[in-house]
């Protein structure tokens, strides 16, 4: 049985608490949050504290905290023989204070309060200094996911960078599209099947095989028509830059 | 029963042929393609021609052709009382020769030869000059889809522009991400659950509600780290521009 204290009850922390609570071989002994919060019904019976001095003993302290407070918070923790891990894609393991054993437990997913993710399919990227700690983190990861991979801090930062492209930037393109349709009084729902298909396609072919559209075809008439529609839009430059990049990538520079 | 001749057996034409063949109340009487092709087993019994003079009679001639040949091809068609429609998002209805009745039947989806789309969920955007033709196109659309909407040429070009953002440009971001991971010897499959979740999220919340990440948070440390990782990359400017655009959109300009 792995005992764990989850520190921070934001998007990542709250979802991991729910997952650990349901997991076999994991005992969620305590939840810490800087401010007092009311736990959801499903976690009501879990011990809660907002004071560092009241932290319970556990095998693992999991810091689900904003990137910029991870280092500072790890200093405040009592020195003991437990493993302290953070859940960030962008923060190196060695930002954790070295008075304790250190590691990383990074779920490669975007969590929103309102959506239940499919935990089993979320890749968990683990890192630790000692092989026994790696084994412990692997066991913890496998208690909630089918995919646990060892990834060092340098690799993790590259994964995180790529995740920004396929999640944050892709979502911004959805926003741009929603915005353009709103201005034209058109229903964004019409694009949802296309959005879904564009994502699912990637399961069965590479992105370069899936690429289509006027930029790839070098279809100047359509490109000009689109730039005309965007002539007063703040998003015109994004259209131009992504079009150029597609043309450079596929060697059809106009 | 609506009789139809499909002209052009590319990605759109071939998928529509399969759909019409299965549809009730639609008779696919002939397939035309400029070059001789061998039809798949499922369409073997359908009459095929590659000669305009051999075109069969039908209620609707559906031109599933590249944008730049639609106008020219519509001139070659015999003058009769049939309805001639094209399937393009970017071409105005009036680019069709006016010797025949004109219309548009635009399935808002990205078709790939190797993937079977879920026809029922593909929005079909229809346009025609006469209300009887609109009714006919609606009936044809409803024979294969649950979502048929009337959209004029101006609206359709805006839908098509937005589709470029959520399909072509999004797919290019997938490619960039795949490329960055390849360079670091990391497995692109690790990102697929995130790609899927990013697309599915849009079903239950708006893109602006779903936006997360370092650009939105104004997390300068992470942004600088990412730009450093991208310092020799051809994709650095895309990172910078999309980051700025997110910050302008959500008012967190740094």
Description:
The structure is a homodimer of 254-residue chains. By secondary structure, chain A is an alpha/beta fold. Chain A folds into 2 domains: 2-151, NAD(P)-binding Rossmann-like Domain (Rossmann fold), CATH 3.40.50.720; 156-249, ProC-like, C-terminal domain (N-(1-d-carboxylethyl)-l-norvaline Dehydrogenase, domain 2), CATH 1.10.1040.20. Helices cover 42% and strands 15% of the residues of chain A. Chain A has helices spanning 11-22, 67-76, 131-142, 153-183, 192-201, 207-210, 214-217, 220-229, 236-249, and strands at residues 2-7, 26-32, 47-49, 60-63, 83-86, 101-107, 124-128, 148-150. In chain A, strands 3-2-1-4-5-6-7-8 form an 8-stranded mixed sheet, sandwiched between helices. In chain A, helix 2 (67-76) links the parallel strand 4 and strand 5 (83-86). The longest helix of chain A is centred in the middle third of the chain and has 31 residues, at 153-183. Chain A starts with a strand and ends in a 5-residue tail after the last helix.
Would you kindly provide a brief summary of this structure?
The structure is a homodimer of 254-residue chains. The first copy, chain A, contains nine helices and eight strands.
What descriptive keywords fit this protein?
homodimer, 254 residues, alpha/beta, Rossmann fold, N-(1-d-carboxylethyl)-l-norvaline Dehydrogenase, domain 2, 8-stranded mixed β-sheet
Could you give the topology of this structure?
The structure is a homodimer of 254-residue chains.
Chain A: E1 2-7, H1 11-22, E2 26-32, E3 47-49, E4 60-63, H2 67-76, E5 83-86, E6 101-107, E7 124-128, H3 131-142, E8 148-150, H4 153-183, H5 192-201, H6 207-210, H7 214-217, H8 220-229, H9 236-249
Parallel strand pairs in A: 1-2, 1-4, 2-3, 4-5, 5-6, 7-8
Antiparallel strand pairs in A: 6-7
